[in-house]
Amino acid sequence: MTTLPTSTEKKLGLAIDLDTCVGCHACVVNCKEWNTSNYGVPLSDEDAYGAEPHGSFLNRVHTFEAQPSGGGCSQTIHFPKSCLHCDDAPCVTVCPTGASYKRTEDGIVLVNENDCMGCGLCAWACPYGARELDALAGVMKKCTLCVDRIYNENLPEEDRVPACVRTCPAGARHFGDFADPNSNVSKLVAERGGIDLMPEMGTAPVNKYLPPRPKDVPSDAALNGENKEPKGFLAWLDKALEAI
Amino acid sequence: MTDTKVAPRPSPKVSDEVRKTTCYMCACRCGINVHLENGKVKYIEGNRDHPVNQGVLCAKGSAGIMQHYAPSRLRKPLKRTGPRGSGEFQEISWDEAYEIAAGWLAPLRETAPEKLAFFTGRDQSQSFTSFWAQAFGTPNYAAHGGFCSVNMAAAGIYTMGGAFWEFGQPDWDRTKLFMIFGVAEDHDSNPIKIGIGKMKGNGGRVIGVNPIRSGYNAVADDWIGITPGTDALFILAMIHELLKAGKVDLNYLSRYTNAGFLVNDNPDDADYGLFLRDKDGTPQVIDRATGKPAKYDKKGVKPDLAAHLRKGGVTYKPAFQLLAEKYLDDAYAPEKIADQCGLSAQKIKATAAELARVAFEEEITLDVEWTDWKGEKHKTMTGRPVSFHAMRGISAHSNGFQTCRALHILQILLGSVEVPGGFRFKPPYPKPPEAHPKPHAGVQPGKPLDGPHLGYPLGPEHLLINEDGSAKRIDKAYTWENPFSAHGLMHMVISNAYAGDPYKIDTLFMYMANMAWNSTMNTSEVIKMLTDKDENGDYVIPHFIYSDAYSSETVAYADLVLPDTTYLERHDCISLLDRPICEAEAAADSIRWPVVEPDRDVKGFQSALCDLGAKLGLPGFVNDDGSQKYADYADYIQNHERRPGVGPLAGFRGPNGDKNGRGEPNPNQIQAYIDNGGFWINHIPENAQFYKPWNQHYQDWAVEIGLFDAAAPYVFNLYLEPMRKLQRAAEGHGDIQPPDHLRDRVKATMTPLPEWYEPFEEAAVNKDEYPIHALTQRPMHMYHSWGSQNAWLRQITGVNKLYIPGKIWDEKGFTEEENWAYVTSTHGKIKCQVARMDALNENTVWTWNAIGKKRGAWALSEDAQEATKGFLLNHLINELLPPKGDGRRWANSDPVTGQAAWFDLRVKIEKAPPGEHVSEPALPASKSPVGQGPKDIAYGEEFK
Amino acid sequence: MHPAPSVIFFTAFSGLGFGLLAWLGLGLPTVTGWTAFFMYLLGYGMAVGGLVSSVFHLGNKKNAVKAFSQWRSSWLSREGIMAVITLLTLAPYAFGQVFLDTTLRPLGLLGALFAMVTVFTTSMIYTQLKTVPRWNTPLTPILFLLFSIGGGGLFAGQVHAAAAFLVVLGVVQVLAWMQGDAKGATGDSTLETATGLGRIGKTRLLEPPHSGQNYLLKEMAYTVGRKHAVKLRAVALICAVLLPVIMILLLPNGHALAVPLIALHILGLLAARWLFFAEAAHVVRLYYGK
Question: Which of B262, B344, B426, C65 pairs as cysteine with B276 (C-beta 3.0–4.6 A)?
Fold first, then answer.
C-alpha cells in the first residue's frame, strides 16, 4: 500500500557533510556501479558514445556558489543529492500501483519495479529530483540506501553500508539510524546543526545536511616584527641560540 | 503483490570471486577489489587493507568497468595504410609488427642510437622502460614529468631530498593546519581527500592557495585567491614576516639544515657564494662551543648561525645569515608585494601569524626515544603541526622551480619537515640529490648507454652538452637552457625533432602519451609537425611507433601501433625502484595482474618490449645464447635483479618468499603478492618514523631492506650550492661556460636562495593586450584523458566551459544565452563557451582540461559533445616563447628544469556574436580504427 | 513541466468526454436511438481515448492495470477507478436510451455525478503536487471541471448553458494565470531553501551535476518564453471562451454552427492545457539553476 507508515522502527539515512565534500563524484559513480548490477533493472545509458549521452543515476553532485551576505569572497559548495527517504514522502502516496513504498522496519523508500508502470508521477511529487525514470526499462529508479548491502551477510560487516558511504574518500557521507539519538548520525546532526532541504515542502526528510563551517573569517593577527634590521636580527639570533 | 517486494533484510550474492589488484584509472595506484561474476567484472571497490586508499575509491576507479569494456579498445597491432592522421590502418599480427619495428630500430642501434627518441607518458614502469632505453643505447628517453610537475619534484629533492605526492605526505593524524598550494584536483587524490576529511574531523584547519576555488579549495577554511605566478612572492613575504618576528625553529635549522654552512661572502673572490670546505671537501660551520670552524657532520658540533669567519681576507657567513639578510629586506614586505599577488597585506600577515602560532604554540611532543646520526640520544620527538602540499599550480610556471624551493624553505624554517604533525617522507625518500644518479648521454653505436638517462646534476660538469655547446639529448635536457631537467622535456621532443634542433631523428617511439592532443602544448602545430613532409615527400619525422590501449587521438598519427591491454588485463609492478606506494610509516609496493584475460590480440606494452628487446638482441633482454631472457613482463618482474638481491618487487623475496627488501628472486613472488591482496608492506620501527634523514634507526632500517646500501644522512639545503655553481659559471668562472645569449638568464634565475621573477610569457607579451591569466585543471573524476570514452564519466563532464570571473563576465556583456567567446593568446585563437564563476581570482579564467576531443577519436560519434562543444586550451599555448627577434627558439619552460610553463598563459577574451556555435578550431575527423561504440548500454543486465 | 502531447490529449479529451457524458446523464439533452448512439459514441470515445492516450505516457505499460489498486492514497489510482465506475454506471443508461428507448433517470444522474468526480480526481493528480506551485491551488480542479462542463455542454448542444459556464471559465482561467504569476515559478522555495545555503548568502549554480541532459531536466525543466506564453494565453482565451460565447449569443443556433464552435473551443482548450504544463515550474529546477 502506498499509504505511509505512521512511524518506522528505524530511520536509516545519510548525514552529508558539506564542509568536507570536495565534489569528486566518487559517490556518484560507485553508486551507479553497484546499483546497475544489483537491485532491479540496470541503470541504463542512452547514446552512450554519441552526441549527448544521458543515463540514470541515483546520486548526483551539484556545485553551487554562495556569496556571503556580509561581504567577502564567494564560496564554492559541492552538494551531493540522492533520495532523502522522507518521513512524509509525497512520492509514495501518489503512486497508483503500489510500487513505491516506505518500509516500516527502517524507513527506506523503495520502488518495487515489478509493480511500477513508469507513469513518473512520483518523480513529479519529489521536490528533490531524487527519482529518475530509466529510459530503457521504463521503470522508476531511486536510491535504495543500498538495501542489498546494508543487511547483506555475504559482505563483511564493515562493508554493510551504502556504496556511496563505503567509497567516499573524504568521509563526507555518514550512514546511520536517525531514530536513535545516540547514533553517529544523530550526534553529528546535533553537533553541527544538521538541516533539512526545502523544509517548506513538509516532507520531513530523514537525510540531513551538515552545513559548511564559517569560512574566510577576517583576522587582524600579525606577527610582532621586533627583529626589523639585519643588525638587530643578529643580536636576537645570538640570544636565541644561547637559549637552545 | 507484497511477495514481489525485496525481503526485509535482503542478502543477495555479491559476486563469484574477488581479485585484488592495483587501479590505473589515474596515477594514485589505489588497491582495488575486482568482483567477478561469470568471468565478467561486476563491481570494483577500494581495498580496505591497502595503504594508499584504505578502502575508498574515487569516481575514476569506480568507473573502471566502463574503461575496461570501452569500445575504443584497440584489438590488434595496426599498420598505417592511409596518410598520417587519416586513421586508415590495417590490422596485422604481432610478428609482423615486431618485424616492422625491428626493421627501423636495428639499423639505428648499429649506427646512431640517438636517432631513436623513446618517450613514455603516464608510464608506471619507468625503471623498466628506462632500462630498455639504456640497453638500446639512446640518450633520448624520459617520461612525462617534464610536462607535468618536474619543478615540484626537482625543487623538493634539491632542497630536502624529496617533494610532495609520492615523495611524502602530511602527518594527517596529527597536523592541525594544512596549507595547500596550486593543487589541481588530481595528484594523490584519494590520500589527500582522506587526509582532509580526517584532519577536519580532528578540528584542523585548511588554507587553500589557488586562483580557483574548487575542489580542495572549496572546503578550505581560508581561501587565498592568488594571482597566478606570484606564489613565490607570497611565500617570501611570509618568510619575511617570520624572520622579522624570530618565528623560526633555530634548533631545527642549526641541526638539520645547511643554515650553519659557511659561505664565501666576498664578491670579488672566484669562490664567491661557495661553501668553505676542508681538505676532504666537507663543508665547514663555526662550532658554537669553540668558535672555530669544524666539519658540519662531526659529532658534538653545534653550528653557530650568528657568528662569521674572516679567513685569508675573505668573510664567510653562515648560509642562514645570507638568507635572513635577503628576505628581511623591505622588498619582501607584505605591503610591497600584496598588489602583485592580488591579496591584501593583512591577509599575508595574518596567514604568516597563523602558521607561526600553530607551529610554535601548538607544538606536540611524542614520548619516543631516538638517536640521531651524530649519535646524540633524544628523549622525545618534537612536532610542529603545520603541513603543506603543492602541485602544478605553483610548478607549471617558468618561475616554478624557485617557487617550489621557496615553499620548501618556508616548511623548513618552521621546523615542520619530518616531524610529528608536519610533512613526512615516504620511502625510498628522503634521498638527497647527491644520492641520485647523474644524467648520462654517452652514446656508442651497438652498445648500451653509459649510465642512467636521468639524474641530478650538481654543477656545470654534469650537463649533457657537446664540446661545441650543442645538446646531447633531443629534448635539450641538462643544457644551459634548463640545467636541472631531471625528468627530461617530453613536450619539446616533437618540436625539436621537426626543427632538426639539435639534430634530426629517425624513429619516435612513444607510450601512453597523447602527444597529438592534450599531452602536448600547441596541439594544432604538433599535428602539423607529425604530418609534414620534406622535399622528398617523406615525413619530416620518418617513423612513429605508438603504444596505447585505446583509440586515442595520437593513434591516428602513428605508422605502427602496438595495442596495450587494459589495466585489469596486465602485469605491472609499482616498484620501489620507481614510484612506489609507500606511506610515511612503511615501505610498500604492489602489483597488477590479469584479473581478467584479454579477449583481443593485445599485449602489455612492457611484455612487447621484452619481445622487441630480445629481437634486437639488447643486453639484459637476451641470455648468453641469444635466446629471449624474459618471456614477458611478469617474468622480468619476478627474476630481474637491479643490484644483487634487489629487484622490481621488494616483498616476498628469497626462494621461500620470507625475505623483505633484499633476497634472491622468488619464483612464486607474484602469487605471493596476489595472496596478500596485491601489495606488500613493511612498517618502519616506531623510533625511526620521524627525523628520517638524521635518524640512525631509520638509516639502519633503510639499509636493511635495501633502499640504499650504506647509511646516507644529510642536511637540508636552504642554500643550494649547485645553483650557485651554475650562476658562477655564468659570471665567467670555470671551463664550462654557458652560451652568451643565456648568460644573463642563468645569472638571474639560478640563484642559490629562491628569487621571484616575472614568468617569461608574461614578461614577453603586452599585458594590456592580453590582460588575463588562463589556467586548466583536471576534474577529480577525469584526471587522465582516458576518461572521455568512459560512458559514465563523460556524462558528468562531456563539455567544458571557460570559467570567467564576474568582473569580466559583466564587462563583456555575457549572458546565459550569449555565452560563446573567442579567446586569443599571442599564439592562437579558439572559440568556446564561457560560464560565470565568482570564487575566482578576478584576472584569471580557467577550464577543465582534456575534455575536448578530436572528431573520430575514442570510438565516439563524430558529433560527440566533446568534439563540438568541448575545447582544449592547449591550442593557445606554445612550447616556444614569442620570437624575440634574435632568430633563436626560446622554450616556454622553466629555465632551471625545463618544466613546461603552461600556466604562464595570457589571453584576451571577446564575446562571439549570437548564433549557433561549435567550438574552434574544429579539426577534421580521423577515421576510427575501432568503429564506434554502441548506441545504448545497460551494463549489469547479465548479472540479473 | 514538459508538455507531453499524450498527457495534454488525455486530460483535454477525457475531460470533454466525461463532460459530455455528464450532460447526457442529466438528460440534457435526453436522446434516444441513433442520436443517442452517436452522442454516446462521442462521449465514450473521448473519455476512453483520453485514458488510452495517457497509457502512451507510461514507461512500463504492462503494469497499467495495477494502477487501480491504490485508491486509498493515490489520486491517479482514484481517477482510474472513478473513470471505470463512471463508464460502467452510464453503460446501462446509455444502452437503455440507444436500444430500448428508455431513460433510467436515477442511473443517469448518478453517472453524471461520477463523471464530475472523475474529472475532479484527474485535476487532483496535479493539484496535490506541492512541488509545482502553479498547480497547487483550488483553482486547478475548478478549471478542470469548468472546461469539462463547458466543453461537454457544447458537445451536448446545450450551448446557452455552456456559454454561461464558459464565461465563468474565462474568469477563473484569468484568475489562475494571475495567481500563478504572482506566486513565482517556484513559490516559496528558492535555491537558498533548497540547499540550506541561504545561511551563507545568495546562492547560484556553478556547475550542474552532469553536462548533458537527464530525465529530470527533460521532464521538469521545460521553460516557455514570456512572449510565446502571452500569445498562447490570448489564443486560449479567445478560442476557448470569447469566440464561442460571441458566436452562441450572436449567431443563429443550429448544427452548422456546432462544428466551428467546438473546433475553436478545442483549439483554445489545447492551448490552455499546453500552457498548464509548459508554464508550470517544478521546484527541482532550482537545483539546476533554472
Answer: B262
